[in-house]
Structure formats: C-alpha cells, structure tokens
Predict the 3D structure of the following.
Amino acid sequence: MAAPEGQAHTSVTVQAVAERSEDEAAALLDPSSSGSGPGGAPEKPPVDWVMTGLAFLFPALGGLLFGYDIGATSGALVSITSATTSGTDWYNLTSFQSGAVVSSSLLGALLGSAAAFVVGDKLGRKRELLLAAVLYGAAAILMYSAPSLAILLAGRATYGVGIGFAMHAAPAYIAETSPASARGLLISLKELLIVAGILSGYLTSYLFVDDVGGWRNMYGLSLLPAIALSIGMAWLPDSPRWLLLSGAGRDRAAAALTRARGKYGDDKAAVDAEISGMIRSAEESASQSGSMSLFQKRNLRPLSIGMSLMLFQQITGQPSVLYYAAKIFTDAGFSGGKDATGVSVILGIVKFLMTGVAVLTVDSWGRRPLLLTGVTGMTLALMALGGSQFASLGGLATWVSLIALLVYVGCYQVSFGPISWLMVGEVFPLAVRGQASALATLTNFGSNFGVSLVLPSVQENFGIANTYLAFAVISLVALGTIYAIVPETKGKTLEEIEALWSEEDKGE
C-alpha cells in the first residue's frame, strides 16, 4: 500500500521513528516516557481512562447484545412453548422449530460474518458498528411485535446479522484505538461484557417468564442498548488505522488518534510517532498479504490452532447449553418458569465470576495451563452430567446435575470462553491476520449454528444422558489437540509469537 499523501517526514527523528514498531516509536518521541521507569526503562505513556473507557464501552455493547440474546433466548424458549405464557396459538413447537428459534440468530451471525469479510474493510469499524446497532434495533422491534413464528424467525435472523457485524468490528475497533499499555486488559474485558449480557438476559428471563407474552419483553428490551450503541458510535472517532488503510490520509488519522487519546492527545510528538508506526505496519502487511499466503506452510500451524479452538469452543456444547439452560433445568427436575430461570441466573453469576478469574490470571498462569485445566474439568463435569442421568439417584440426580453443570460452565469460562478469542488475536501472523481471523470467526458461528440447530433433536432421539457423554468425548479430543499443538504465548510480543512459526518452518 502506498503511503498517504503528506506522509513525508520533516526531521531525522521522525524518519527513525517510522523504522521502529509502534510501541518503540511512542517510547522514543513521548517526552513523558523518557528513562524514568524501573531499571532505566521508559515509562508507558499515560492513559486517559475516561476516553479510553468510552472507546471500549460503546463497541463492547455490540458483544453485550450478543450475550444478552443467549441469556434471553434461554427463558424465551420456555415462555414461547408454554400454553399458559406464550400468548400465541403457535406455542406447540416441534423440536426442529425450537432449534430454529435458537439457531436463526446464529445463521444470521454466520451470514453477517461472511458479509463483513467482503465489505467490512470498505465500511470501516465505526460504520460496521453503526450498521449493527440499526440491525439490533430493528430486530428487537420485529421480535417484540411478531404475530407469527415466521416473523419471529425473521427478527431473530436480522438480530444475528447484527451480531456478525458487531463481533467482527468491535474487537478490531477496540484494539485499533486503545493505547498499547491498555490493550490486553481491554481485550480480556470484552469477554466479560459478553458474559454480563448473558447474565442480564437470564435476569430478564427470570422477571418475565411467568407473564403472558413475557418472551416479547425479553427480546424487546434489547432495543435500549442498541440505541446506546448507535449514539456512542456516532460520537466516537473512526479507527485511525482503518483511515490509513482506506487512503484517508495521515492528517485525518492523526485527528482521530488525537480524539481517541483524550486529554493526552495534545502531545503531537507522541501522536506523530504512533501514526508513523501504524503506516509502517500497514505497508509491511500489504506487501506480504494475499489470498493464497494464508495456506502457506508457515501459516498452517497457527491456522490450525485458531480454527480448532473456535471449533471446539462450540462443539463441546457450552454455548448451546446456555441457550437451552432453562429447558435443561426443567428437564433435570426443577419446576418450570421461575425455578428453572432462577437457577439459570445462578449459572450466569458463576459464569461472570469465573470470567473474572480468567481475566486476572491469564497473564500470570498462562494460556496453555488455563486451557488444559479448564477443558479437563469440563470433560469430568460432562461425564458426571451424563452418568447422573443413567444412575438411579432419585431426587439426588437433580442436584448432581446442577453442581456438575455449574462446574462445567465455570471450567469453560476459564478456558475456551476467553482464551480462544485471545489466542485467535495472538497466533496469526500480521500478513494474514485479517483473513485468518475472519475464517476463525466463520468457523465459530458456523459450528455454533449447527450444534444449536440439532441439539433438541439429538436430545429427543438419543436422550440427554447420551448427549452429555457425546460432548464429553469431544472435550477429550479437544484436550488432546490442545496438548499437541497449542503453545504458551504468555509474555511474548506478537512478533515473538510470529517468529515461532518461522523457526518451525526453518527447522523442517
């Protein structure tokens, strides 16, 4: 990619900056970072946490709305299929129709991800998120007012397309606008916002599950955060990196970065240094990219790591179990309505707390230990879930199922939940990162859609016990795959991780 017009540097210092990485450049030119850190190392540039927080929060609402749909659908499925609370004459859904209610949003997310792969870079991160907000809002209105199953499914699919655009653009916007020193924390917190959405969906389900037509309120309330998302993204600046890639020019990118840095944006030298690093990175990426380079030998291992983590994240059953949580608790022996959705709230709280554990420990314990420990716990919990259905435990089976399910959720949330997305952002080489990440996202939503669609039919035909045991076998395969191919990336820069694949390629 050619450098935007006006890029010529006016001093030897800035020329030197352009040949360094973004972080080195910022350290070189930021006066506040000169040699006062521990051991004489430069201090990290200061962060305006108010502006940085807003630039994180509004895009992260796109993820929160994804999580909300998972939690709300758990209760909505109970409400819709009850003759007492449905408020419709089409409440008697078949297993396939129940699966369609859940999976239609995932099909939409799959289509949205594919569309984002084609037009995402043309729209830009900001406009993608604005489009997602419009789709979320329109879908909320459709679902709330749905007079038939067909209209409800159309609303669910529309919501899903919004999910696809939001989950493609939000991580990129957060990464591309946040200061380097805050980027790891914010990417981890993004998963916490998704879990907060799931918990809020469970709480909403608990409040409305016994009301006639309560499912309409569960889905309709998503309109409020959708409006907040649209207002926030209209106010925030464009991603400066996207502006450079789109050819908008250095001046517009610098203006966007100045806004993103808040009260520290008036440090022109630091902004200029960061922009220079962005330009060099964009030029190097453009010179090495290409559709076929994704499948070159040196990229096969990182590609297999990212795609396998996205696949196992879904086919070990966790996301689908969350969609059907209230129904699963009803089948396990809890009375329907308030009791089942109340237990779902407890499940959401456990999920939220364990995500916090992962956020606090991922940089000290490491990615690989969390994955191996968490997936081992998932496997054992799934075996206990399946075994409790076979054993003659009477009423005790209900409590064994509850404890095992909470352990399963907790172990997932310190492993596949946050770590899979984090490693997808780390393992792909720069030249293919965009394409590889899109392929991993498509794998994620495609497998999520497939599992959610067939899960009710599988449970009906093979029984819930055999379903849990099948997930346990898949988890065991996932454990072996992680042990064999996933390295530890804790404490490594993206360049050091990329060097691992180059060394392996040379070694062969």
The domain at 46-235 is CATH 1.20.1250.20 (Growth Hormone; Chain: A;). Residues 49-80 form the longest helix (32 residues). The mean pLDDT is 79.
